[in-house]
Write a structure and sequence with these properties.
Blueprint (H helix, E strand, L loop, with lengths): L3 H6 L13 H10 L9 H21 L11 H10 L13 H17 L9 E4 L3 H7 L4 E2 L2 E2 L3 E4 H10 L21 H4 L9
Parallel strand pairs: 1-4
Antiparallel strand pairs: 2-3
Length: about 200
């Protein structure tokens, strides 16, 4: 899975103007590197938004802890856990889009694709190194099966592309695969101010 930020940051590593959307070339490069399926995590961002909205409504209607504090940044969550113990109960219980996608990839997708979930290896390409920590959290697995198996950053992906001798700028665009369906614009801007709720 790839985060929306990766498609506009990766191009700079290969001489494209900052902010250029190189999604098609990125997908083609990932396929050349050997990935069987390439998904973005926009749909899982939509799921996170829906779940957080439901959690907020539930807290309001049932007298839950308010305000609801939400962040898809594992660095910020860890900071709160270590420095603001009084707010831990305010944190949303929803998984981030990365982890939401991993849960779907290890449960729904294997049923749809008729594969053993233990043979599904999920790699996330994310803009932040803290996502590596998030994927390794104990609560991000079910019955010993991790939601996310590996996380690489945008720069690490660029390094892999170079090491494989792939001429990124010459790649023909390729489309991402779809795990569940169409995503909303809110999924794309999830990480921006106003993107969550």
């Amino acid at each position: 899975q790839t985060a929306p930020a990766v498609r506009v940051a990766l191009g700079e590593e290969f001489g494209f103007a900052p902010g250029t959307n190189v999604e098609g070339k990125m997908v083609a490069a990932l396929r050349r590197l050997g990935f069987d399926k390439v998904f973005d995590n926009n749909f899982s961002a939509d799921l996170t938004i829906i779940e957080e909205g439901n959690e907020l409504i539930n807290r309001i209607q049932n007298g839950g802890k308010l305000p609801l504090i939400t962040s898809c940044s594992p660095g910020w969550i860890k900071y709160c856990e270590h420095n603001y113990h009084d707010f831990i109960e305010n944190l949303s219980s929803c998984k981030s889009p990365q982890q939401m996608f991993g849960a779907i990839a290890k449960s729904y997708y294997p049923t749809k694709a008729d594969v053993d979930p233990r043979k599904v290896f999920v790699v996330s390409v994310m803009p932040c190194t803290a996502k590596k920590y998030e994927a390794d959290r104990e609560e991000m697995s079910v019955d010993g099966l991790k939601d996310i198996d590996a996380v690489i950053t945008t720069r690490e992906l660029a390094k892999m592309i170079r090491q494989a001798g792939i001429k990124f700028e010459e790649l023909e665009d390729s489309k991402q695969d779809s795990i569940l369906g169409t995503y909303s614009g809110a999924g794309t801007i999830f990480g921006n101010t106003g993107g969550v709720m």
